[in-house]
Amino acid sequence: MESKDHIVKIVRDVDRRNSTDIRIYPGMVLIVLLVFICVSVYQMVQLSIDGADSRLQSAGVFLTGIGVVISIMYLLVSRRYNHEDRDLALMKDLLDYTRDLFDHYGIREYHYTNSMRSCIKAESGLRTFRLRFIVSVAPAAIGLIILLFNSTSETAFIVTCCLFAVSLVINIVLLLQCITYPRAHEKEFVTFSDAYVDAMARCGVRIRGYEPVIGYRPFWVFFVLSVVTLGTFFAYWVYRSMVDMNRHIEEQWVFENAVIEALKEF
Fold it and tell me: Fewer CB within 10 A of the terminal residue: the chain, N end or C end?
């Protein structure tokens, strides 16, 4: 039986959480927003100076705004990627351990392991974080280069604004995916946890399961409210998502601690 090898892997996965499960607090975003406000005010003051290039100054404000969105998106997506990467490793090792125990005890109730496998498959969606980030930044970067080398061209300015807008849209889409991730992720993790706890119970091991901490988040209601309030509610939505993910991480750590304690006693 290879239970000891699986336990070593599970412990290793749990030990990684201090470096992968990063809590992002709203204050971090507030600092980014304050920087944007300061830069925007400076750019607007520069616009009032005689002889200032209004197109370059306006593009600077626009680019700074996109930089804010990219910064927030990077925080959320990188946190999601790191957490999900560790989660997948942990879930796979827990599945292997469960299969090993079932073989040892001669248990043939495969619906537990099938349910765990389905959750792992559903969680395997985000594998291209760096590529997505490059794609989101590339249009704005190209637009900035065009503007720097053709600062007096009206066509170059229009093209630059269009490229900035493309980058902004891509980043907003990525942000939407990130702020809806915590609840979707928790739903899968609850299913996995329940299946694992039930499977361990069949082997005589009692473990405290994961307790849901994220409430219902109606996407279309939140989206419409964000549009109606001209983005004000969207800011709250992002804030709520950060709090949700922090709470999920804390509760998952409680579950993982219970798993480790049970493995030590088994």
Answer: N
